[in-house]
Request: fold
Amino acid sequence: MSEFKKTQWHPPFCAAIKLELKANKKDLSFESEHTLNTKPIQIDLLVIKKLQDVNIQNEIGRIFKGHNIFEYKSPEDSLGIDEYFKTLAYACLYKANHSKEDGIKSSDITISLVRERMPRSLYGWFKSNNCTLSERYPGVYYVSGEKILFPTQLVVSSRLNPNEHQWLMALTSRMNKTAGERLVLSARDLTEKDDKLNADSILQLAMAENKALFDKLKEGTDMCEALKELMRPEFEAAKAEAEREGLAKGLAEGRAEGRATGRSEGINELSKAVKLLRAGSTAQELLDKGFAQDIVTSATALLSDIG
Reply:
């Protein structure tokens, strides 16, 4: 069984879209799980163009207007007719929630529906309602028709061009060796911190969903070294945490041991002091011999109680 629950597919999805669009990341604003109102209604990913005249390089972003709403379904979830209408409702509510009347034009909103495989029931509904699906790019279908309120695209990630969309295609439990190697090497070659963090999120999911494949890749020297390099920050963080925990434990054990040793030594000193007082030594003589004041006081009191 997969180590990732359903909800854990969405952060890597957001990371994948960010990497797909990284050529224009300075021109875009990303809001994961954008909240629509005070109730827990959230858009999976909202991508906002900062400037209207920016040309988005990635095929998935060619449809973009000012406000772009993504609905993502993991391989385990269905993308059906009702999910489409829910996303449509999100888009309408997003428009209606603007502080100004008609502050966001309906023509300035797009909808992107993303799933690994073709959603057959939704595809059939589009067809039966006179909607046209045009495969503008491999795996990217533009949907048009009288019942389409906003510019809409359906992205079937398994049909995308693997040379152009490796990040989104990595959200799968059916990854092959070539895709796994490409993912590892591409992640290793990233230089900017935010890109590396996004790649790490995707890689973690890919490794969990395709454990046998990555175990096999680790047997190759080049892949093993690349994976080690990618995982080094996590290894170092885990090592540092373990060292901190070990130090804290050692200090605690040391303090406990010190208290136990101290109690034992104190009892021995007190016993010696009592014996010397019984033998006729004075309190001052014990102090002169180096006994602590509290030991001498306790021994004197104890001897008085006994006597």
Residues 221-278 form the longest helix (58 residues). The chain has two domains: 6-176, 236-306.
